[in-house]
Write a structure and sequence with these properties.
The chain is an alpha/beta fold and about 290 residues long. It is built from 10 helices and 11 strands. The longest helix is centred in the N-terminal third of the chain and has 12 residues, at about 65-75. Bound molecules: S-adenosylmethionine and zinc ion.
């Protein structure tokens, strides 16, 4: 994208954003965003803007090697069934889609591809993710922010919100969703990647995960309108199995060497291991009063 069109995109998206310090609506400048009270947020050379406040965050966000591993896995097509399900579920007339915990922006790009007039905002705590997300699609803006803090977005600005394998702040999603808007949530089923989870040190998926999600949604005033199961399989090389583990929390607590050794053990003589993608897309909205 040329500098000019990037600037234009920020101009058209600034009114959706809020200053994380004072809550006012910023406007786009040559170099980033500026709110009426003079709080200034520079646009990084790589195209994203950090709207983290000075307090910083106690949460661990993805590192550069994790983001690179995630990008290789997503580019391999292993999770295309998930991207396709999201693209099919997002309303075509969506005006603004927010991807909360966007990672590389892969699923935001899929949603934007299916909603031809939409502007996308990818939010992530990791600047490495924001760098990738800024380039994920010509209609995507990338913002660094903490999902556990008030989101730097106005009330009711989003027609759709995506939460794909990412932390969910239901109260904040309820606040930013427009009336009639939808929240598309992707969560893994217990069988997700079951062939490789244990060997690669990936966290267990609780059997009650979907029940807990529904409880969490109901408590925040959401009603589930659709539950879409998505399954597919992929034959992974040892390098891909290493990436699959390294792009997630195992990337924090196991060394690349440990992951590679575990992956080599899994693939054995056939040199590949089959892994099942087994997830649910939950679509939820807030029923209108009356
Ligand atoms: C498992 S990844 C999923 C990324 C992407 N949705 C995908 O499926 O490819 C979770 C993402 O959430 C981000 N994340 C974790 N905690 C966060 C927080 N408190 N605020 C914002 N992003 C966060 C991580 O940096 C990471 O990119
Ligand atoms: Zn301000």
């Amino acid at each position: 994208m040329t500098h000019g069109t990037e600037q234009q995109l920020w101009r058209s998206g600034a009114h959706i954003l809020r200053c994380p310090v004072c809550g006012d609506e910023p406007s786009a400048t040559e170099t980033g965003l500026r709110c009426p009270r003079g709080h200034v947020f520079d646009r990084a050379r790589q195209g994203y803007v950090s709207l983290l406040t000075g307090r910083g965050s106690g949460h661990r966000s993805d590192t550069a090697p994790m983001v690179a591993a995630r990008r290789r896995i997503l580019d391999s097509g292993m999770f295309d069934a998930v991207a396709n399900a999201l693209a099919a579920a997002i309303p075509r007339d969506t005006g603004v889609v927010v991807d909360a915990g966007t990672g590389t922006g892969h699923y935001l790009a899929a949603a934007l591809g299916a909603a031809p007039a939409a502007l996308g905002i990818g939010i992530d705590l990791s600047k490495y993710c924001a760098r990738a997300a800024a380039k994920a699609h010509p209609r995507a803006l990338a913002v660094v922010a903490d999902l556990w803090e008030p989101l730097p977005l106005g009330d009711g600005v989003a027609d759709a919100v995506l939460s794909v394998f990412a932390p969910r702040n239901a109260a904040e999603v309820a606040r930013i969703l427009a009336p009639g808007g939808c929240w598309l949530i992707v969560t893994p089923n217990p069988g997700h990647l079951h062939e490789v989870r244990e060997a690669l040190g990936m966290l267990d998926i609780g059997a009650d995960k979907l029940v807990r999600l529904h409880d969490e949604l109901a408590a925040a005033g959401f009603r589930v309108t659709e539950t879409i199961p998505v399954t597919s399989t992929a034959d992974l090389s040892a390098a891909q199995a290493t990436d699959l583990a390294g792009m997630g929390p195992a990337g924090f607590h196991r060394t690349p060497g440990e992951l590679a050794a575990a992956a080599a053990g899994l693939t054995g003589a056939t040199r590949t291991v089959t892994a099942t993608v087994d997830v649910v897309v939950t679509v939820a909205g807030i029923p209108s009063a009356g």
